[in-house]
Design goal:
By secondary structure, this protein is an alpha+beta fold. It has 21 helices and 13 strands.
């Protein structure tokens, strides 16, 4: 038995009492069978859209996509998408049907869906309605297309990305015929909007099985991000690495926290390596690869239409992932002052994952990273001064000492901040003013 929120039960009962079939369907049934709580619930029904609206006269009804049979009903503030059983016509843009026709058959409705695990319906009174073997595929951990895979992917090419995204997130294998069709039809992804590609790609990166999926479906990843192709099978010729560049990248993705920013930074951090490879005394080197990786990363993230905040944070992490920071409070304060504490901690996580993706002989670096985190924790716990806003003196104070408004004020404050972070002077207002006076008199 599947637990349903009161609002969902109400909707199903109202439709049933009015003489119509109604089931929850799709991801909410799949997630329930997997033992996770669904984020939202979709309902499918034999009622036509206008009949659905009539059933819910006492509720707020939004005609979300009425020409495709969908209305949204709000029950106790909970939005429920209710869609009439339908059959899709031909797909002309590899994304949406040109038209739909309504049917009275739940089996015909579920036959148009992408994967068997997403084609299961449920109603408390009738139980599970599974016309395509989805429940068994869930038990076996298999992703299988409903019907003929080529037809499903040519109808909606985004399903190619959805298949490997589900494989990464759920840890499921893709059934053999479905898998063959993924590779056969991968070029259809060129017809899908970059925003939709980005959404599926980021979810894939954040999956628990990201290493396997990136290495198993590298050709599909290269279809959406061609810049990764040079990384495949690129031997690093380094005693510090046991993986090639692509495998190393996949391992770093797997090893870092599964947040979008960190997984994206891990994915792009070494993308520039093949462009700057050199050999010296039998050892491979990649001088300047962080800068090249940053440039490629920014170009790709821009093409994927990611927001500026995400793009800026990811590119900063890529640029800085190889930077060495001294294990001293002064150096840590300086970094956090120039960047931010948040970026510092994210960089440590990326560096840790980068280390875990190398030869175990370098794992001693993990102790150094632990120490760098401990230093930062101590700095923050002491509410140490590491930014201009923390200084007990401001621009007005500097101008009162005779410095004209402009860049000189900022430079003076920055010098004072550097002295405080280095431990050369206390963050005390009177002492800072005295130090500023000395600096100004020397300049004059």
């Amino acid at each position: 038995m599947i637990y349903l929120p009161e609002e969902v039960n109400t909707a199903l009962k109202l439709l049933n009492n009015a003489g119509y079939e109604a089931y929850i369907v799709g991801g909410c049934v799949r997630d329930s069978l997997l033992g996770t709580v669904p984020k939202d619930y979709d309902i499918t029904t034999s009622a036509l859209p206008l009949q659905t609206e009539d059933v819910f006269k006492g509720y707020r009804v939004i005609e979300t996509g009425i020409k495709h049979g969908t209305v949204t009903v709000l029950i106790n503030g909970m939005p429920l998408e209710i869609t009439t059983y339908r059959i899709d016509s031909e797909y002309e843009d590899c994304r949406r049907p040109t038209s739909v026709s309504f049917t009275k058959s739940l089996e015909e409705d579920t036959a148009r869906r992408d994967f068997t695990m997403n084609a299961i319906a449920y109603n408390p009174a009738c139980g599970i309605a599974d016309h395509h073997g989805g429940a068994e595929d869930i038990k076996k951990g298999i992703i299988r297309c409903v019907g003929i895979p080529d037809e499903r992917f040519t109808e909606d090419a985004l399903r190619i990305m959805r298949a490997i995204r589900f494989s990464s997130v759920l840890g499921f294998d893709v059934e053999n015929e479905t898998k063959k069709s993924l590779f056969k039809n991968k070029a259809l992804l060129d017809k899908i909007s970059r925003e939709r590609i980005a959404s599926e790609f980021i979810k894939l990166l954040c999956g628990k099985d990201v290493f396997r999926v990136l290495t198993e479906y590298d050709e599909i990843i290269a279809q959406i991000i061609p810049e990764v192709s040079p990384m495949f099978d690129f031997d690093q010729h380094s005693r510090y690495h046991i993986y090639n560049v692509w495998e190393h990248t996949a391992k770093v993705c797997e090893s870092v926290d599964n947040t979008p920013v960190l997984r994206l930074a891990a994915f792009f951090h070494d993308i520039g390596k093949p462009h700057c490879f050199t050999m010296k005394n039998g050892e491979g080197h990649f001088y300047g690869h962080a800068s090249i990786s940053e440039d490629i990363c920014r170009t790709v993230l821009t093409s994927l239409k990611l927001d500026n905040k995400t793009k800026d944070t990811v590119t900063q992490l890529v640029k800085l992932h190889d930077v060495q920071i001294e294990q001293t409070p002064a150096a840590v304060k300086k970094f956090m002052s120039r960047r931010s504490p948040e970026l510092y901690y994210m960089l440590l996580k990326l560096k840790r994952a980068d280390t875990l993706g190398q030869n175990p002989m370098v794992f001693e670096r993990l102790e150094m990273l632990d120490n760098m985190k401990a230093i930062a924790d101590e700095v923050l716990s002491q509410e140490a001064c590491f930014s201009l806003k923390d200084l007990k003196i401001n621009g007005n104070d500097i101008m009162t000492l005779g410095v004209r408004p402009g860049k000189a004020v900022g430079r003076t404050l920055q010098i004072l901040l550097d002295k405080v972070m280095a431990g050369e002077i206390e963050n005390d207002r009177e002492k800072l003013i005295a130090c500023a006076k000395d600096m100004i008199s020397i300049d004059n």
